[in-house]
Predict the structure.
Amino acid sequence: MSEEDDPRGDEPEGMVRLSEKPTATDFVEWHESLEWIDHMLTDFPHKIRLAISNWSGLNLLALSLAGLATITGAWDFGIGELSGGGDYRFSGISIFNPESGLFAISSTSFFLTIVSGALWLGFIGINWQIFPLMRSHAIALMAGIVSVQIGMISAHSGAPDFPFGTNITDFLGIFVGEAILVFILIVVIYRSVIETRDLHVQTRHQHPDPYEMERAKRDHSLAGWTLAIFLFALSINLAGFAGAAHVAQRPPFESSRILSYLVYILFTMLSAALMMLILWYPQFMLGGTTLTIESEASRMATAAIIDSSNSIGTCPSCDTPSTAQMTANGIIISACNSPDCNGEGPVGQDCPICEMEISAIIECASCGTGASVSDLFPMEDAW
């Protein structure tokens, strides 16, 4: 098979494909429905090794900023603001209220708070730069972190020993925060990446051999990436709980509370690393393609707006312009294959009129050659 015909695309030198790796566990031998566990436990270490070998200095700089932001925000040595319990008579962060808790802290604590905020903005800014396909998702993940933290603070404000000594209203903040997080992770992040991955495989790795298609699907598995999302959710909840619990206690303290302090720092740093892994892998997987990462419903809505700026595909055999078009967002649109339907839509998705799947194989009206859309619109790919 020539390089042009390879359905897997270009491969970074030395990269081992998932389809070539044996699974690390054999839960499938117990029951075939457990195969996803084998894939998840095999894929996740693979993603970690890929990240280690592919992350650049900017990735490491972003991680360093997150670590410094965590430490400066939690620094209390030589200050005593946190270890002393603060002044419970003051609360809030309003800059317009002279009795706000923001003005009750020491100047050193205030300075470190500002520095920590600036470092977190630097962390977000670098991620915005190095993961252009995932910019909106980066903002969504930060919103999820904030929502969980606010929920934890809300719960502990009414019950410092949360979950002990609570009533039903103390759980309201956590419920809202977790609901926002679940929506962001499943609807905004997971769904859009999964559906974009499916479209990517169907269009860029189309092959008449079902075995090759299965290999392409395995190479683009998101099982390990899904585990990273779960670990991210767990980490920000543990960090949020530990942080809120640490500052919610009232003096005199029965212990040093060092455990909650260390748990907060550890899992905040871990959540930052997992966030970068979540943003990095879809960007790496799609390589140089022009697809945007969005859900099928969003892609269908975008595809409905077709203008003259769309690229026209050409037949690889006779160079005749095809009926397929590519939008500026990388969406390939083609006519429905059903002879009695005049519908059109994104390749690999259902026709909006007859609901038949629009084929990724386009037949040339001039020479009759059937070519995949990857041949009509040559693009670079990570693999």
Summary: The longest strand covers residues 321-326.
